[in-house]
Amino acid sequence: MQRWKNRPEGSNWGEFGADDEIGRLNLITAQRRRAAAAEVREGIAFPLSLPLDFPKGEYAHGPRKPPELASTALGHNNHFLPAVPDVVSDDLATIHLQYSTQWDSFAHAGSMFDLDGTGEPVVAYYNGHRGGEHVIGDPSGSVRPHADALGIETIAATGMQGRGVLLDLERVYGRERVAVGYEQLTEIMEAQHVTVEPGDILCLYTGLAEVVLELGAELTQERLDTSCAVLDSRDERLLRWITDSGISAIAADNHAVEAFSMAPPPGAEHALPLHAHCLFKLGIPLGELWYLTELGAWLRERERSRFLLTAPPLNLPGAVGSPVTPVATV
Ligand code: UVW
Fold first, then answer.
1. pTM for this model (two decimals)
2. CATH number of 23-58+99-110+147-329
């Protein structure tokens, strides 16, 4: 059943059905997965996750906290309390699911929008899902915030496997902070002979993960905000290109794919226009803080850009984001 009377301009709501919850991931068909598998020629696998306790430094003092491990006992045979010859340890982790290498689900970012044509904006998410009904967000209520629709488990259920295509922004800009718009993106794609097809997962290698690893506890917010490339999400032509390209997901080794700021410039519709465009309007998951360094170097040396990407998030019902250990196979 269609959940909206109005849909946002430039959105694809309804295109994959009134009840769709996986957006552009619908474009990763069996045929496209076979084409992705055909990119495996050497059989070399690249893990694309940071250690999940990175970034460190000032980032760890932000709203997202680093994971905390605690041992738990399984009966009496925990190694802290040996009572039988066998030694078994169990773990408990307190983890902010979007602290480090992650996927954002479509329940992560919505927008105030007049879904019903009444002139009253309501909290809205991809394909007309609603705050309070599908994505429950009132921390003061009796029910803990969670997603009854659009949660990360919907992405896990797809297997999240397809053809990854890497664009090497680090090769062009090094560690300079540059906002890459449509002009730059298409120029670099041409120079690097990179093409994308519908269903592809675009991976942006910017080099920020190296900065994060190198600086460790010395990482400052300033370095995070001023290092390496981001997408210029205020460039309408870039957003249009994302729509037209048919790409099914975008992942980057930087903080938020676009520049991160929760303060919109005066008159701007969204604080994070790429999040709004991808997660809210088109159903394109965003991956952040991936580790693309070794894969990027390997592909660069061989003038290649494509690989099989396997990157399922946790199958954790109701979560709006998830750590991920993506694997690229070339
Ligand atoms: C926000 O946009 C708030 O977070 P992230 O960059 O992790 O998606």
1. 0.96
2. 3.50.30.50
